[in-house]
From TrEMBL:
Pfam families: Fe_dep_repr_C (PF02742), Fe_dep_repress (PF01325). This is Transcriptional regulator MntR. Belongs to the DtxR/MntR family. SUPFAM superfamilies: Iron-dependent repressor protein, dimerization domain, Winged helix' DNA-binding domain. It comes from Desulfobulbus oralis. The keyword Lyase does not apply. The lineage of its organism: Bacteria, Pseudomonadati, Thermodesulfobacteriota, Desulfobulbia, Desulfobulbales. In the presence of manganese, represses expression of mntH and mntS. Up-regulates expression of mntP. PANTHER family: IRON (METAL) DEPENDENT REPRESSOR, DTXR FAMILY, IRON-DEPENDENT TRANSCRIPTIONAL REGULATOR. InterPro entries: DtxR_MntR_Metal-Reg, Fe_dep_repressor, Fe_dep_repressor_sf, HTH_DTXR, Iron_dep_repressor, WH-like_DNA-bd_sf, WH_DNA-bd_sf. Residues 6-67 form the HTH dtxR-type domain.
Amino acid sequence: MADIELSAALEDYLERIYLIERKKHAARAKDIAMALGVRASSVTSALRNLSALGLVNYTPYDLITLTETGTAMAKEIFGRHTALRSFLEKVLGVDAEEADRTACKMEHTVSKTVMERFRKYADYVERCPGGTAAAGTDFSQFVAQNCSNKTKDCPYCSLLASADKKE
């Protein structure tokens, strides 16, 4: 995949075209405008830019499809969005709507290294056989109880307190 730098807005267009294309096999400018809540003139401008970069097949008033490079980039953007949304929901317990909005903002700025760590940590919490799937549950309980460190009712704070006494 070519090393093409896109603005957050163009990444959003690419991702949206990808999602529409998955459903309908091709996108129309009005589908994109409706999905992103923008004017048709904004879509036209973005499509011209994406076409000039070789990421979309675009001719005015015709169906829009992604090129091979465009598809690869869109899948990568969508993958970041999905991983971040999943992390926010499953690990941090953020509600789905807020997780989706936040992931959309974060997907444009998170480095590849940090993104990979998000993915690995979410996978670790979800799949590690050492009982770490409970870590996500424990964190959710921690947040719900508004735990303020060394609370008698918290089993982990109690363990820490007893360990401190032994030292």
